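HUMAN: Would you supply a protein with fold tokens?

ASSISTANT:
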Amino acid sequence: MTTVLEGAYLATVDASGTEHQTGHVVVQDGRIAAVGAGPAPAFDRAVRVDASGLLVTPGLVNSHHHLYQWITRGYATDDTLFGWLTTLYPIWARLTADLVRDSAAANLAWLALTGCTTSMDHHYVFPSGVGDLLEAEILAAGEIGLRFHPTRGSMNLGQSQGGLPPDSVVESHDAILEATGAAIDRWHDPAPDSMVRVAVAPCSPFSVTEELMRDCASLAREKGVRLHTHLAETDDEEAFCQEKYGRTPTEYAEDLGWLGPDVWMAHCVHLSRAAIKRFGATGTGVAHCPTSNGRLGAGLAPVRALLDAGTPVGLGVDGSASNESGRMIDELHQALLVARYQSGPLALSARESLRMATMGGARCLGRDAELGSIEVGKLADLALWQVGDLPGAGIEDPVITLVFGAPSLQHLFVGGRQVVAGGVLLTADTAVLAARAAAASVRIAGR
């Protein structure tokens, strides 16, 4: 099947930053077959989409998330990360496979409606005897139609061992490695057009032992998959690592084999100049989560310095319990504001923000050869934005409208399959998803 999008403003986000004021994209068999200025070449039996007045960008890539948190929004809204976690851990201990699927489906639908074509998920809470939680969210992603990178998270450092999470939500070292290996064997698809890829993701330095961090790194490299964790999110984490390990979070991670081009970290707010240099030198990626960092008062991540060091930087919505709006498109605006709060008006441009949300995220997930830009041969993951209606009328630069203004998503394609048309989700009934998520919120709260 051939689909031709024509008449749009194209922001390709290729290496040269090529843009076309009026251009076309041709999609064949899930990939981009042609892209350029002006009308598209003639194709027999092509489905033609009039994209006049729209902006076409690569689909947005969400590089850090916790889908299960959609049903626990609004808790501990005036607390630090550690206080927020202490409030929510006992609630998350009630998770079941049904709850995770309802939460993930609603959350993924909202990501799709806000421009996201690929999302990772960091699931690390696994109460015993409640079903296969990773399977539940993978099935939900298949239902909604997004490209999905679930990570098998874990916690084994409970309160009785000096960690933060209660013992009821931690697993044993051996059980974690066995379950993680089994998840990779069952679900990970390394094919270039893969819809599901699995990574290994112990939760954080304050919830996982040194031994597990080392063994997870070894397992991931043995299986040929990527590594992910939270790092340097708050001052509390810095103090914890200094007290327990005598090292900064970055030093601790590097000692355990956790810096490298197959690793990306979430947050990385509190990094020294030396740490930033090590991230860049080792090719370690960063998932920048500006809205969540602001919601929890974690601080301003040094994005300009990380980019200048050559670090792959993507954007992440983060869990909806620390970012209740959950809109992927919002992170582009927030990232720009955070950078300028910290380093002045030239710290980040709109196009750099768009690049982080597309190619930056693709680099973090190890898929920049397949995703993140509109180029011939790449997967046809595309977002089409309305930038000329009432909210954007009069803003002449469509990319500025996207990042500074108030765009609305019109169409979304994942591998050439249309997931959103005219701002409406095609793959599921959003009213049903909302009702199920609302009921799940009541159940997990114990009401």
Remarks:
- The chain has 14 helices and 17 strands.
- The CA atoms of residues 381 and 414 lie 4 Å apart.
- The mean pLDDT is 96.
- The chain has two domains: 2-59+372-423, 60-364.
